[in-house]
Amino acid sequence: MKGLGELERIIMDILWARNTALTAREVGRLIEDRDLAPTTVMTVLDRLSRKGFLERTRDGRAWRYQPAASRDAYVAELMLEALDLTGDRDAALTRFARAVSGTEAEILRKALTELEEQ
Amino acid sequence: MIAAAGLAALATVCAVAAWRLTLARWTWRAPRTAILLWQSLGVTWGLASTGALLAYALEPYRQGVAYGLIDFLARLEYGVREPVDLLRLGALVAGLALLAVLVTLPMAAGAQTLRARHRHRVLLSLIARDEPAVPGVRVVDFPAAAAYCLPGLKSQVVISDGTLSLLSSAELEAVLAHESAHVRERHDLVLLPFAALRRALPWSKVVRDAQASVELLIEMAADDRARRQCCPRRLATALLRFGTAAALPTPQGALGASAATNVMARVNRLVGSDLTLPAHHRFLILAGSVVLATSAPLLWLIPG
């Protein structure tokens, strides 16, 4: 039995990999773990919609789900924050080091060469 | 009048000391001691500046700031009614306003930081993967170099895919030792009030510089911890590789320059000769911090 967090991840990956909106039944068929109860899949899809990661539309008596944003968009959001390039939403992370460019980068590159030669 | 004058003097001393401390370089030789001094200065300045205004306003009560304030808030009536009271009334309003600002704005900013971290954590759980080569570390598929610690009750160390290809295994080990030092010593809690104060008072140069200083000192403290477990030289080369691996356009100007200076300062500490501040100096600074931190609360209690 997988945890809910793990299932959320698997289901998002399934929906990101396909371009069409899927129903809970279709998602359930694509999950490798065959022992999963259909209600569990529905619960996770519902949770993800409430968190804003999925959008759902009516299709007859069922709902069809699709990602609200692409995987790349979320990766970009995370990494912009990690590199301290966002202005407003600052999670005050402790970053290893910042990258610099131009003449500053030249100074660091020279120091790196010197250290490696020693 | 003694309490008001003493608190005003204390607030001035703290402001001048904070300004001097942003320029000081001995802090790099004893980052942990310097962080403590910063915390002590911050708390003392807040208590002293609000206390000075309130001590003057509540002087007619003759009970000191703490009890005078309780008395005033309990009755919500300013007891002294003379024509000359306008100045004291102004001090009362200013003192209460400053106290409210110093308490609520950092709390609101802190809450926003926690929300941003929560969102970050949720996104990570959907996107990051585990890599067998680096157990316990979350890996995000992204070409640029990034390594950071997402703080919380269960802090997570996160690196980008690009980091794995940028660094040698010894360098990666050094970076991870550095990041787990952040986790173990809960550096995020040190940073939180300074980051919150900066968000609350973004126009204040001293606050901005203070936060930048503390950020750098925390990195140095983590470097110090990491060098006990790994080769300092590998940590230094990892720093330089990170600094030059700009896959994204970095912010121009002062930030870039100070980032480069910070990287070089940390590298020089790691490869240079050992220059830890002598123990008796550190002890003196520590004692000073304690005296400072206890002086303001005491002055809040002195009547008159």
From TrEMBL, chain A:
Keyword DNA-binding: yes
Top-level division of the source organism's lineage: Bacteria
UniProt similarity note: Belongs to the BlaI transcriptional regulatory family.
Pfam family membership, one: Penicillinase_R
The keyword Coiled coil belongs to this UniProt entry's keyword annotation: no
Organism: Microbispora corallina
Keywords associated with the record: DNA-binding, Transcription, Transcription regulation
Protein name per Swiss-Prot or TrEMBL: Transcriptional regulator
From TrEMBL, chain B:
Keyword terms, alphabetized: Hydrolase, Membrane, Metal-binding, Metalloprotease, Protease, Transmembrane, Transmembrane helix, Zinc
Cofactor remark: Binds 1 zinc ion per subunit.
NADP among keywords: no
Ranges for domain Peptidase M48: 115-194
Cofactor(s) of this protein: Zn(2+)
Transmembrane segments: 34-57, 86-111, 283-302
Family to which the UniProt record says this protein belongs: Belongs to the peptidase M48 family.
Protein name: Integral membrane protein
